[in-house]
Specification:
The structure holds 2 protein chains of 2 kinds. By secondary structure, chain A is an alpha/beta fold. Chain A is 46% helix and 9% strand. Chain A has a 7-stranded mixed beta sheet. In chain A, strands 5, 11, 12, 13 and 14 form a 5-stranded mixed beta sheet that branches. A two-stranded parallel ribbon of chain A has the order 1-4. In chain A, a hairpin with a 4-residue loop joins strand 17 and strand 18. In chain A, helix 8 runs antiparallel to helix 9 and helix 31 packs antiparallel against helix 32. Chain B has one domain: Nonspecific Lipid-transfer Protein, Chain A. Helices cover 52% and strands 18% of the residues of chain B. In chain B, a hairpin with a 5-residue loop joins strand 1 and strand 2. The chains are: A alpha/beta, B alpha+beta. At the A-B interface, helix 4, helix 5 and helix 15 of A face helix 7, strand 5 and helix 8 of B.
Amino acid sequence: MPEITLGDLSLGNCVLSERVTHLRDVYFESMPEICGERPRLITRFSKNHGFFNGQPISILNKAKMYRRVLEEREAIVSHTRGVGRDMRPFPFEDRQLFAGSTTSKLKGVPLYPEFLALTLWPELWTMSRRESNPFYITEDDVKTLNFDVFPHWLENNILELGRKRYYEQNLQKYGRKKYDPEIKLMQRLVFFLASKPECISHTIPDFSKAVKLGLRAVIDEAREKEATAPDPARKEFYAAVREVLEGIIGYSRNLAAEAERLASLENDSGRKQELLDIAVVHRQVPEFPARSFREALTTVWICWTAVHLENPNIGLSLGRLDQILYDNYRRDIDQGRLTVADAIELICCLWLKIGDHVPAVPEASEQLFGGTGSNQAITLGGVDRDGNDAVNDLTYVMLRATELMKLRDPNLNARYYSGVNSQEYLRRLCEVNLETGATPALHNDRAVIKALTSKGETMEQARDYGVIGCVEPGSNGRFYGHTAAILLNLTSVLELALFNGRHRHTGMDLLISKETGDPRTFTSFEQFIGALEEQIRWIADHSTDLNNFFGKIHQDFYPTPILSSLFEGPMEKGRDLIDGGAAVNSSAATISGLADVADSLSAIEKVVFDDKVVSFEELLEALERNFEGYEALQALLINPEKTPKYGNEDPKADANVRRLVETLDRVFGEKENYRGGKYRVGYWTMTNHAGFGRLMQAMPNGRKARENFTSGITPVSGVTPSLTKALNSVALQPASCLASGVALNLKYTPEQDREKMLENFADTVEGYFDDDGGRSDGGMEIQFNIVTHKTLVDAVGNPDPKMLVRVSGYTAYFKDLNPQMQKEIIDRTEYLLSTGKMVTFEPFPLPTKR
Amino acid sequence: MASRIRRTLLNIIPSISERAGQWALQRFSGGLVGQLGDRLTDKFLEFLLYGMDLGFCLSRDYRRNIKDFRGSYVFRTANQSVAASVTFANEDMQVQTKPVEDWDCRITFENAAALRRFLFSGNQDILNSLLANEVEVEGNLNYIYRFGFLAKDLGRRLGVV
């Protein structure tokens, strides 16, 4: 257990250095720019090496391509320009302490034509001017993409390769040309979003070998294993590992050479020395073991850029950096080679580098994913593999850097094990939340470890979990779990049960799933529950079949040698991650609309079957009319004192939530994925609950058409007046059913008496995480916005570009969110911690269509 | 659609000057500009395809967009009251006023307004069109992205995008 040697855990004397202040200002000033470098190099290699012939691509060929690209890509030590929000380039002096970049731009948008980059094709000329989150693009890049890149991928991206194979398969199976029921279901968007055509990504690499041993040692290990491998497939795997690691080393050497070149031209002696220092670092790492804290950070950073060359920048996460880097930090501090202030400056510089790219979201997808960063989660604190307190000085250094920077990326997550981690640590986590208003998210170690072990992870693996993407837990560096494989709209499943396999959005004359009975004929609530469970099974069958099908397309066309070489499992098995090489495998569905569906069930149970206030027919009629003419019924349905609502410790309401999470866990948990792992279920929704909300009609819980759904595992906004009861209801849900993570979103009013607020804050978290002497698991995760309703309302009209908010999993800049999502955050239940009571306000108006 | 003779004649213009071709394109595309403005009618698809065809004839630069491109599209309304097939091959575009059987991408749209929103909207209406079931795309989705670029690029040349 590491000794805490810091006197002041808040490190209040450490402030942003002049260098970091300047870099941070430039970061906020600059606009994301489309980068044509990766697609150009990848396309050229693919074209020249026959990758576009529709045949599977071997891992070795992929590895050769990545090596070539790593060695050929521009080695950027210092950027010389950015592009401002006014779309004008501006020069600046880049005195970053880290060389290299994810793209060739200061803030780049990397493109992956192997996946969905072609969705940007129609807007190449207009994306700089679009309303939501515009991307700058040069005319040269438009032409390169239009003439030299995109045409080659028309028949060759994962979506099309999959669709074509699907057609062929169905032609053989059903004898019907162009028959694609599952793909059509996916394209309708309202049932579930399937992520495989976009990426897998969501995972945490293992940086520990690279830091401690260096990549040369891994190359040597691969060579030895290759020599003794029993079959050609494994020999090829190890050869591929050697190729990509040589590529990463080559890229770092190119950076060293560029730094030396720039130093030779530099007149400023201070900058000259900085450049020479950069060169020394890059001559050492990542090829050889890191000798210092800075070299360890550089190893992580360079490997990180390489991982992004291969894997789309969506949800790739860095894991437990305070654990992996601690030895290097401690050694430098003890030997007097590093001060805490130096360490904070280095961390701040790294945080900015990590945020040097944003995902390529097409304008059309802004409604579902608007405002998202790359969701690069970092995990701090918690316990180590033996169950001991893992919080160390570096944990606090990273917290201070986060507090000072207030950035969207990285997405900071803190683990807390009550009784093992200190109260001072918990208090500090709450304090950083107060300061930043939105980060870090807090995870209950006891509940998470229980959830992961229930899915077959060993106790050691589970204790060493890191957070992926938004909030998903997985064993650090050894869990390949595509946590966002299926984004399921549970309210659509309810709709199918309500309308006998049909959906109002796709038309009542079209049978979408299976007929499970007309609810108007049902005589008991259990009968309706039976229909709903059948619809859940139907959607689980189709969504997992489709995910597994596209998984096989990935296996044929998208092996991942870079990620596999930085992971626990593939090197031991001689097998790529995509083929099941990881130590722990799974896929997951994450659910939107849990609270809305649970409350709808409670409403049906109470109003239709128990009290018989209305018949099912009348209820359906009211829904059809969006409660027009049924205002009294809607008032009854939304009133938590008359109709049970999740989040009020109402036994029936909470039982309906539990019934849903248990059913979903059981149904998905029976499914096996294409890598030999089982499916897990999570409850975090990014901005999908707002996107799905605008598609859906009125629901039995009194929600009217187009209104937002509730985020994550959070109870419906505005119906849970007591904070304690809300937390207790959520904490009742069994952790074993929530293994792919949950997001509980709370909003607290900032209070004058900061000390008192901090005390209440920490007590509330402690209470929520408490397992009640083993009678429950305790809440699994919690995240906050510390902001008033009024501040958010004001920010709609007068946005502060730096205003950070917690969405449902990740953090975002409020101004980047679409209007529907802004409304959702504004309308979230807000509590005054000093009273534990809900603050009342009028709901924000639903945005009108622009 | 432009006859072979007319195409040959039109092709002469950009060989003299790309700027002249651009001028001619703008001069002869008033109908499409109107359709993209406030004079939308059921003939939108016809005007659009005519404008594209004209663009390929009059602008070498615009024609470069379909170099080496082979692909066929069917556009139709659900009730088949409007239907057209477009085939790209040999740096040329052929239009038929009936749906062909062998297509790479088939777009079924509710009406002209829905199709215009789908191809030209300046904000988030592409998703809205799909979500509202105003437009359904079957086959290779990448083809619609390419067609979307061709349409927007024409709009840019006409100064309306």
